[in-house]
Specification:
Radius of gyration: 30 Å
Largest sheet: 4 strands, antiparallel
Number of strands: 9
Number of helices: 1
CATH topology of the largest domain: Immunoglobulin-like
Order of helices and strands: HEEEEEEEEE
CATH architecture of the largest domain: Sandwich
Distance between the termini: 100 Å
Shape: rod-shaped
């Protein structure tokens, strides 16, 4: 009996060690999968924002219209574009009521209050900024 007790003790210790290693492996695997998934989601969102690019296509100061073209490669919205005149944020009436904006579509007009030139017009979007003077 004295010779069997140490063998049983070693086997029990080995089983406990293997079960703890298995538990740690499963726990770490789940944690790494969740981390990878959230990183991928965040990265996809950031890349999507970087592809939302716009350019000022023209300015009609007398009519208070700034023409903006979507030059990016992903669908966007008029809500993603901010328009500034002389560093003052303007409230745009894009007309048409639809905020959706497809890439390479015809320019949309941002109707603002009439402004006088000389003025600096700037637009900002998630992927870039553009400015011009009139």
């Amino acid at each position: 009996m004295k010779g069997i007790t140490p063998i049983i003790a070693i086997i029990l210790l080995l089983l406990i060690t293997v079960s703890m290693a298995g538990f740690a492996f499963v726990f770490l695997q789940r944690t790494l999968e969740q981390t990878a998934e959230s990183t991928e989601t965040g990265l996809t969102g950031q890349l999507n924002k970087q592809e939302q690019k716009f350019a000022i296509d023209g300015v009609n100061a007398d009519g208070g219209i700034i023409y903006v073209r979507h030059t990016g490669s992903v669908n966007s919205s008029t809500d993603d574009v901010s328009v500034y005149i002389n560093d003052v944020l303007q409230s745009c009436n894009w007309g048409g009521g639809k905020p959706a904006w497809a890439p390479n579509s015809p320019p949309k007009g941002c109707n603002v209050t009439t402004f006088t030139c000389p003025a600096t017009i700037k637009i900002t979007a998630p992927g870039n900024t553009d400015s011009t003077s009139c």
